[in-house]
Amino acid sequence: MSMNNETSTAISTSGLSTLIKKTLKQKLAVLVPDWDGRVLDVPASGEVLAGPCAIVAFAEEVPKSAWAGYRRIIKISPYARPEDGGTEQVEAWSALLIDGLHQVRLVDEAGEAFTCIYLGSSDSDRVDAGSGMVTRSLRFGVYVPEDSGAALVETGDAWLAALQDWTQQELGSNWSVHGDVWPGGYEKPSVLWRLAGCSTSVAGTSALEVRQQWIGHVLTDYPVLTRQIVTRLVEQLAVQARLAVTETGGEEHKSNTRYVTVDEVTADLQTDAYLNGQIRLTLQQRIRRPGTNVPFIREIHHSKGME
């Protein structure tokens, strides 16, 4: 059974990689018309490249991200002839690729979406021995979100639901607000909130203080708008000071509204929006410690003894 599953996974991953590469080639041909559609796989041994072009190659596969999905590294290498500008032309093309692919969501012919993240250049400019052209390798991370479906929403955390509701009201209906993971069909502008950690501490003899650390990702098509929204959310969370949380359950199965306090909220505007998130938020709430409900008669005796 496990071998069949492994074989199925390998086949699906291989098919996914093929679709990703095909989609990227089509996108690159549009981004740089000077290549005249020459976006190629790694050449065979002894094959000499002709004319300005680009090579697309899969590099290492990295562990899946809990919120961004399947990850694969792809190297894109533009090649420019010396008579066309050499290094200067490679520099110009590299800028076009970074601007046209970084944090860009692409959809393949099967309708599956993936997101590209620029990770830097893996080496210095070099001259290709066979063709004499100048080239450079640009590394992109390709992230394929896994569509979690409606089940995740059904079992969502009450604090997360409160955070999503507040964000939706703050930004309006034209924004998509997600929880826990980027969905396969996400669109811009979007906000993602995910839980990064939690802790508890004793607060007096009968209470516990629960703290949760959240990370917020703000994604738009425009860097200026992204910065504005990040700043706005941070400021408004600080002003809000607390969020209403509706908790269901209990003996009577009735909804119970409690409040969580905004303890600290900060932003890093230089952080990658899709992968790392710009907002760091700490929420806290005090709850009664289990087992601290003292019987009524004992409370009377205890209070008399203190008089």
Short summary:
This protein is of the alpha+beta class.
Give the key terms.
about 300 residues; 6-stranded mixed beta sheet; 14 strands; about 35% strand
Strand content: 35-45%
As a percent range, the share of helical residues equals 25-40%
pLDDT below 50 for ≥5 consecutive residues: which ranges?
1-11, 150-155, 295-307
Main beta-sheet strand count, sense and barrel state: 8 strands, mixed
Total DSSP E strands: 14
Task: Give a verbal description of the structure.
The chain is of the alpha+beta class and 307 residues long. It is 30% helix and 36% strand. The strands form two sheets. Strands 1, 2, 3, 4, 5, 6, 7 and 8 form an eight-stranded mixed β-sheet that branches. Strand 6 (126-127) and strand 7 (134-135) form a beta hairpin. It is elongated, with a radius of gyration of 26 Å.
Write the layout of secondary structure elements.
Blueprint: H1 2-31, E1 39-40, E2 53-65, E3 69-80, H2 87-101, E4 104-107, E5 113-121, E6 126-127, E7 134-135, E8 138-144, H3 151-154, H4 158-171, E9 176-179, E10 190-202, E11 207-219, H5 223-240, E12 242-247, E13 256-267, E14 279-288, H6 296-306
Parallel strand pairs: 1-2, 9-10
Antiparallel strand pairs: 2-3, 3-7, 3-8, 4-5, 5-8, 6-7, 10-11, 11-14, 12-13, 13-14
